[in-house]
């Protein structure tokens, strides 16, 4: 196995920051997305396009966190990879496939909500279970096709007499990996990001203008304000979780290719990239939290089950259920 001599990279943070944060993401993501899947699949009597998207989103997030344990162990050992080349390729592949699936399903949910709020008449024809199944299947196929080259680029190698699992590729192949890395940044992140931001900004504008154009009673105004706050929170979560990570990753790629000999700069951009990596992972924990927080109906169902009660609490109203269906919650 070839031994690559590269710039000495500061990795003290790997033994603390990454194992602790990934362990937290693993525990929270496993329990929260498991509860979300249980609530959507087992406790929802009638399937809908919203249920289909949320089921696939939870499945992608759940598969994402299941790829974390080998990374937790490796980072706790200072980057040493004891699991072999095949598991290295598999972990990197599933890590990125489910990360991109999560972003794409969030995009599907945002478009779904956008149609319901901004084009309610057209939404009746477009927000169907058949179309949701087709879109969900397409997301899995597209994400898998995008990440397939990872099976070639990711592999084990030896750096400074230590076996490691390269996250992108080995140092001598970064010039070959660079166009693919930019492709992932544009197709896998930038385009979904622009769609999500456009949809949520349009929904916020429509809801705000509707509230300003008519006199609303107190209950309707509270519902509208809650919807606005939920949309703003989802938008903020998407920006905080995904934007800094992909910017740091792209900058790291550029430095690796065009300034590989500047070890100080390489250390700075690598630490920045690695610090933001756990943040993007927390998105898979935030998705079910936002879902339950934004849907009183599903929160009530979960709480009722946990308390072992025989009937739903009286706090669930037809207005809450209608709001959930309208805004795709």
Structure description:
There is one protein chain. This protein has 329 residues and is mainly alpha-helical. The chain has one domain (3-323): Rhopdopsin 7-helix transmembrane proteins. Helices cover 76% and strands 3% of the residues. The protein has 13 helices and three strands; from the N terminus they run βαααααααββαααααα. Strands 1-2-3 form a three-stranded mixed β-sheet. A hairpin with a 2-residue loop joins strand 2 (156-159) and strand 3 (162-165). The longest helix is centred in the last third of the chain and has 41 residues, at 218-258. It is elongated and about 65 Å long. The N and C termini lie far apart (51 Å).
Summarize the structure.
This protein has 329 residues and is mainly α.
List its salient traits:
Rhopdopsin 7-helix transmembrane proteins; disordered C terminus; mainly alpha; 329 residues; disordered N terminus
């Amino acid at each position: 196995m070839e031994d690559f001599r590269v710039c000495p990279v500061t990795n003290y943070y790997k033994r603390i920051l990454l194992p602790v944060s990934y362990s937290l993401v693993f525990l929270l993501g496993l329990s929260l997305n498991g509860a979300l899947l249980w609530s959507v699949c087992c406790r929802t009597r009638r399937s809908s396009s919203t249920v289909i998207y949320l089921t696939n989103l939870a499945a992608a997030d759940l598969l994402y966190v299941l790829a974390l344990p080998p990374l937790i162990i490796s980072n706790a050992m200072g980057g040493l990879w004891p699991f072999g080349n095949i598991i290295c390729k598999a972990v990197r592949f599933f890590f990125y496939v489910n990360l991109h699936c999560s972003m794409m399903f969030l995009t599907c949910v945002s478009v779904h909500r956008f149609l319901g709020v901004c084009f309610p008449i057209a939404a009746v024809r477009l927000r169907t279970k058949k179309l949701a199944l087709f879109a969900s299947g397409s997301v899995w196929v597209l994400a898998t096709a995008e990440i397939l080259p990872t099976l070639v680029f990711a592999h084990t190698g030896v750096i400074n007499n230590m076996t490691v699992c390269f996250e992108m590729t080995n140092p001598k192949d970064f010039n070959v990996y660079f166009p693919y890395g930019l492709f992932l940044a544009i197709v896998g992140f930038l385009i979904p990001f622009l769609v999500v931001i456009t949809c949520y900004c349009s929904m916020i504008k429509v809801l705000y203008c509707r509230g300003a154009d008519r006199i609303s009673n107190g209950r309707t105004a509270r519902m509208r304000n809650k919807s606005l706050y939920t949309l703003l929170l989802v938008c903020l979560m998407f920006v905080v979780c995904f934007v800094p990570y992909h910017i740091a990753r792209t900058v790291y790629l550029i430095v690796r290719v065009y300034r590989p000999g500047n070890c100080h700069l390489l250390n700075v951009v690598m630490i920045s990239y690695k610090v933001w990596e756990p943040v993007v992972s927390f998105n898979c924990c935030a998705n079910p939290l936002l879902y339950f927080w934004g849907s009183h109906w599903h929160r009530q169902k979960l709480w009722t089950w946990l308390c072992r009660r025989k009937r739903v609490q009286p706090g669930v109203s037809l207005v809450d259920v209608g709001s959930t269906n309208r805004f795709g919650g």
